[in-house]
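TA notes. Do not distribute before section.
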Amino acid sequence: MAALLAGCSSTTDGDPRPNAADPTEPTFPTTKPSRSSPTLPPPPSTPTPTAAPPRAAEVLPAQNGYVFIETKSGQTRCQLSEAEVACEAQFTNPPTVGGSPANGVRLTANGDEEWVVGNLGDIPVVTLDYRPYSAVGWTIDASEAGTRFVNVATGRGMFVAIEAVDVF
C-alpha cells in the first residue's frame, strides 16, 4: 500500500521561474461561446397596488365653543377652543410648576406653551379612535404613539404623549 501512495503527490519538485524570453504570463485566445438569449414571454400583468385614500377628518361638535376629548387609551384628556388646546395626563417626566410635577400642558393658537398643575374636572369627553379629527379650528391626528394638534390658521401645534410633549 505504501507503494501506491508514493506515486501520488500534490507537490512538484523545483522552483517556478518565469520564461526568460517573455517574463509575462502567456496569453491564449479565448472565445466566448455564442448563444442567443431565449425570448421570454412578458410577465403576466399584475394590478398596481394603490394606497388607500386618506380618511376624511371627522368634525367634532363644539359645546359653548369647546370640544372635550379623551384618547383611546384613556390616559390623556384635552379641552379645545379656537384660542387653545389644554391637555391633562400623568406625564412620565414633566417639569415642576410651583413645586409640583405638572400634569397639564396648554398651547395657544399662536404657539405659546405653558405647563400647568390642575384638573379639567368632569368634562363630557368624546373618546377618540386612531384617526384624524377636526374641531374648532384645530386638526387632531390620534395614534397609538400620541395625539397631534395643529391650528389650521397658524400651523402651530403640539404632539402630546405620556412620554413627551413636542411643540412646533
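Switch to the second chain here.
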Amino acid sequence: MPRMLDVSDAVRAEIGDEEADRLLAGENAPGSYDCTSCRTPGDSEQERTSTVLFIGDETAVLAFAHASCLPSQVVQVTEEQLRGAVRSISGDAASAGGPARAVPEQAVLGVTSGLVLISGELHPALVVEPTAPIVRPGTIGTGDDFLPLLIEQGFMPLTVLNAVPPVLHGWSVLLAVGQLHAVLQPGGNGGQPVAWWQAHQPLQVTDSWRAAANKHQQVLMFAAPVGSIGRQPREDLLRDALDTAAAHGKLVAATLPLAGT
C-alpha cells in the first residue's frame, strides 16, 4: 500500500530514485514506526511521515519522523552518533548473538530562553541543560563530560557573569518566523552546518527576546551539567541559577551569531 511519505530532494539524491520510489510505493517503508524526533508511535499509512537520512563517516541510516516534528532531510552526524542512533532504534539487542546489555538513559538537551542583563543591557540567551549526564562518545562510564566536550568546541568556562562571552564562529542559532528551530554547529570537513540541537517542534520566544535577538544579531548560549540550573519560572531566578552555577565552576558560554529573523 502506498505510504504518506515525504522524500526530500536531498534524501532522494542520496538513496537514488529507485529506492525512493520503492519507499513511496510502500515496499521498503514500515507502516508503524517510532518517530526519530519525539520517539512516539507513528503510522505512515495514516499520517504524513518524513524520511530522515542520517549519514555518518562510513554508514547511513534511514529513519522516519512525523512530518509535524521534522521535515524530510539529510542529517550529517559522526559515526559514534550514528552507532548510538542504531542502538536506540534497535533497542540495543545483540543481533550478532551476544547478550543484550542495559543502555544508559538517553540524555535530552533541555533549552530555556530568557533575557540576561549584562553591563546594563539585556541580551537574548539560551540556557542548555541535559536531563542526564553526558559521557564522551565511544566510552562507557558514569562520569559527565558535557562541559569538557563543549570547551573542546570553543565554549568558555565562566566563574562570574559580568561580560558578554566571545563569539564562537561557525556556530549559530536558527530563528525562523519568530520561532526557535535549532542550534547549529560546523559541519565536518568544512561542510554545511549541522544541528547540534534541534527542537522537536519550533519553540515560541517572547516578543522582547526576539527584539533583542534582532537588535544584537547574536544570542548568548550558556550550558551547565544536569541538575545545575533547573526549570526556573522567572528570568530573575534563571539569572540567580546562572550566577550560582558559574560560581561553582559549572557553566560555559559563548556568543552565537543569529541565523534567520
